[in-house]
Write a structure and sequence with these properties.
The protein is mainly α. The chain contains seven helices and three strands. The longest helix is centred in the N-terminal third of the chain and has 26 residues. The N and C termini lie far apart (about 45 Å). α3 crosses α4. It has a single domain, classed as Winged helix-like DNA-binding domain superfamily/Winged helix DNA-binding domain (Arc Repressor Mutant, subunit A), CATH 1.10.10.10. It has a three-stranded antiparallel beta sheet with strand order 1-3-2. About 60% of the residues lie in helices and about 10% in strands.
């Protein structure tokens, strides 16, 4: 498709998407050092060490069948990252929460994931200010994929 037939928004998105794909190996390396997959990271994002999440809420958030959510949680438990906890008022309900090890791994991933790629860090102050202004319009409230940690 020629550039004339592609809208500006499509061109911007393609450039951004290609940049994210090109920089994915660093994120995947970070996961690989910990024996994790991208899906494991997605799972860690929704969990914390204090408040547990029900299997139903995890399946809904992950947009998967509850049996798949069970498989994901089983994997996180095997890795020592998450645990199922009983609820005092209803022993049939299990909540999933991060273990201390899982919280530490999540914090490490956050630190690495939020470290800007060299190509971005090398941009000048003006370009970075422009990007902040532009992306601020797309996400006025900074979305934290790794909830609970303040910078």
């Amino acid at each position: 498709m020629s550039d004339m037939k592609i809208s500006r928004a499509e061109r911007v998105w393609r450039l951004l998407f290609d940049f994210l794909i090109r920089t994915a190996p660093a994120r995947n390396e970070s996961l690989g050092r910990r024996g994790l997959t991208p899906n494991d990271a997605r799972a860690l994002v929704l969990l914390d060490g204090d408040e547990g999440r029900s299997m139903r809420s995890l399946a809904e958030a992950w947009r998967c069948d509850p049996s798949n959510a069970t498989w994901i949680v089983d994997r996180l438990e095997t890795l020592g990252l998450a645990e199922r906890r009983s609820v005092a008022h209803d022993r049939r309900v299990k909540l999933v929460a991060l273990t201390p090890h899982g919280s530490a791994v999540k914090a490490e991933l956050e630190d690495e994931y939020y470290r800007p790629p060299a190509e971005l860090a090398a941009l000048g102050r003006g370009d970075l200010e422009d990007l902040l202004r532009i992306f601020g319009k797309l996400a006025p409230e900074p979305a934290r994929h790794f909830r609970g940690r303040k910078r």
